[in-house]
Specification:
The protein has 317 residues and is α/β, with parallel strands linked by helices. It has twelve helices and eight strands.
């Protein structure tokens, strides 16, 4: 049975934990580059890891033309992410994704479609993806999503606070968002592609955790650069430092640009090497993705049959 950690509560604003930090870019890139070459998982072990990855996916649709029908189809896939015949051949049953992530107005449709499944609905909020609406409106959007049934809220930060070094303003903003979430768990999207340096990524990660975030998340998926291994490694080191300083356990979510089964394997290896097996569970690790699920199912079919099928045989929804 998986141990469940107390929900993180955050800490007072403590600049001494991050203001002296300077991340070594070349060393970080060298360590990140070694992940794909130093470790590999094959055969039945690879199939097991890919099944684990499915349970950690936040299956996502965040398009301007989203409709209730699209959300319902996505939720049907969330309930049954792998064909029954493949699961039977693998000796597995009851696999579902970690959550379904949608815009606030789509939350009621997702809640209805997932009723009885135990799969939580996550909603982006706070003026996603730019986060440049007034703070009262961003907090009201959180409240709206929670009232509609969202159990997880993915918030975006004001990048200006990071780029200008206004760390106390960033802390106050995220703390207010956490309060607005109430019982819903909060994932703080740092939009790392906009933060310019890995040192800024570390500092923003630490402040988000001090302000009470349940997860720290790389990206909205809308930036020019989204989840990368060097950024993810930097965030995991901040997460580990925060655990050592406070005893509080915070989750991690890479998002944006993760599309293949190979990506899933690489980030699972990163989690295992940096934080251990416990951080490979869906209460502490999520992958924001949509097309990745189809590629994972295709790889599982290859494992079962020895043949690769056309990608269109594994539609997202």
């Amino acid at each position: 049975m998986t141990d469940h950690f107390p929900r993180p509560t955050g800490t007072p604003f403590t600049p001494a934990w991050f203001d002296h930090i300077a991340v070594n870019l070349s060393a970080t890139e060298r360590r990140a580059a070694s992940l794909g070459s130093r470790r590999t998982v094959k055969k039945e072990w690879q199939a097991a890891w890919l099944l684990k990855a499915i349970t950690c996916i936040d299956l996502t649709t965040l398009a301007g033309d989203d409709t209730p029908g699209r959300v319902q189809r996505l939720c049907a896939k969330a309930r049954n992410p792998v064909r029954d015949d493949l699961l039977a051949a693998l000796g597995v049953e009851g696999i579902t994704v970690g959550a379904v992530c949608v815009y606030p107005t789509m939350v009621p449709h997702a809640v209805k479609a997932l009723e009885g499944s135990g799969i939580p609905v996550a909603s982006v909020a706070t003026g996603f993806p730019a986060g440049l609406t007034p703070l009262p409106l961003r907090l009201a959007e959180i409240s709206y999503a929670v009232e509609q049934g969202a159990r997880e809220i993915d918030i975006v930060i004001t990048r200006e606070h990071v780029l200008t070094g206004n760390w106390s303003a960033l802390y106050d903003e995220i703390a207010a968002m956490r309060a607005a979430c109430g019982e819903a768990h909060m994932k703080a999207i740092l939009a790392t592609g906009d933060l310019k340096t890995l040192s800024n990524v570390y500092k923003a990660s630490m402040i988000a955790m001090q302000a009470g975030s349940d997860f720290i998340k790389t990206s909205t998926g809308k930036e020019d650069v989204n989840a990368t291994l060097p950024v993810s490694l930097t965030m995991l080191r901040a997460l580990r430092d925060f655990r050592d300083l406070t005893g509080q356990i915070v989750g991690f979510k890479p998002a944006g640009g993760l599309k293949t089964a190979k990506d899933a394997m690489t980030w699972l290896i990163l989690m295992k090497e940096e934080l251990g097996l416990r951080w490979m569970q869906p209460d502490l690790f999520r992958i924001g993705a949509s097309s990745m699920l189809g590629d994972i199912e295709r790889q599982l079919e290859h494992h079962v049959t020895g043949r690769y099928s056309a990608a269109n045989r594994h539609a997202l929804a």
